[in-house]
UniProtKB/TrEMBL annotation:
GO cellular component: cytoplasm; nucleolus; preribosome, large subunit precursor
Gene Ontology terms for molecular function: RNA binding
Family: Belongs to the universal ribosomal protein uL10 family.
Pfam (any one): Ribosomal_L10
GO biological process assignments: nuclear-transcribed mRNA catabolic process; ribosomal large subunit assembly; rRNA processing
Protein name: Ribosome assembly factor mrt4
InterPro entries referenced in this protein's UniProt entry, alphabetically: Mrt4 (IPR033867), Ribosomal_uL10 (IPR001790), Ribosomal_uL10-like_insert (IPR040637), Ribosomal_uL10-like_insert_sf (IPR043164), Ribosomal_uL10-like_sf (IPR043141), Ribosome_Assembly_uL10 (IPR051742)
Self-association and partners: Associates with the pre-60S ribosomal particle.
Gene designation: LOC115629899
């Protein structure tokens, strides 16, 4: 009789990992995009959401390309110093690839992109660590929007709930969060269950580079563009040597 495959176990040691080939592909993609697109932006993400970034990639795919990956890999693609850079002054973009940032390669004009970024935002649910933008208080009484099966879960999140005649009910006033205070994981889950988004997904254009105009800074910082990043290169190479199995 053939052996059942329903409970077949797969060793995690056999799964693929993002190694040198994956890193090299990102680097080559960036170099290709530098040659293809006339304008490049370094953007910073507020309240990152993968699904919204995926939507933007789909919306802009006709004449643009978003690349969002490990900063040090993107830095290598652009060139971290004057001697490495693919085009003049691209190392200035590379220096600003810090934090939660990405690259936008586009055929759209600089003015068009900056205006779009200024006005674009999407409402999202806040995560733990986010500061509440308002105070939310639930008065004692029934919560008819929740099925009776949700009551144990609501109680586990700290809400003073019980079932009364099959209806989820709060038996005392409950403050979910207070304006200006950092949300806990439980508070963030409750706000999502209540359908109360508090965060905004936004992109801020830190700086840009155009083939016709070169580098331009759009958000002030304390980076010295005249100083080469040789020390940073040495530190990064040492990091790679010591952590070659981590990626």
């Amino acid at each position: 009789m053939p052996r059942s495959k329903r409970d077949k176990k797969i060793s995690l040691t056999k799964t693929d990992r993002k190694g040198l080939a994956w890193k090299q592909r990102i680097i080559e993609d960036i170099k290709f995009c530098v040659g293809k697109y006339p304008n490049i932006f370094v953007f910073q993400v507020q309240n990152m959401r993968n699904n919204l970034l995926k939507d933007l990639r789909q919306e802009w795919k006709r004449n643009s390309r978003f690349i969002f990956g490990k900063n040090r890999i993107m830095q290598i693609g652009l060139g971290r110093t004057k001697s490495e850079e693919v085009e003049t002054d691209l190392h200035k973009l590379s220096k600003r690839l810090t934090g939660q940032v990405g690259l936008l390669f586009t055929e759209k004009s600089k003015e068009e992109v900056l205006e779009w970024a200024e006005n674009y935002w999407a409402v999202e649910y806040a995560r733990s660590g986010f500061k509440a933008t308002e105070t939310v208080v639930l008065p004692a009484g029934p919560l008819e929007e929740f099925a009776h099966s949700m009551e144990p879960h609501l109680r586990s999140l700290g809400m003073p709930t019980k079932l009364e005649k099959g209806i989820v009910t709060i038996y005392s006033d409950y403050t979910v969060c207070e304006e200006g205070k950092v949300l806990t994981p439980e508070q963030a889950r409750i706000l999502k269950l209540l359908g109360k988004p508090m965060a905004q997904f936004r992109l801020t254009m830190k700086c840009s580079w155009t083939k016709s105009g070169g580098f331009q800074l759009h958000v002030d910082d304390d980076i010295n563009d005249e100083t080469l990043a040789d020390s940073a290169m040495e530190e990064d190479e040492a990091f790679e040597d010591n952590n070659s199995d981590d990626d």
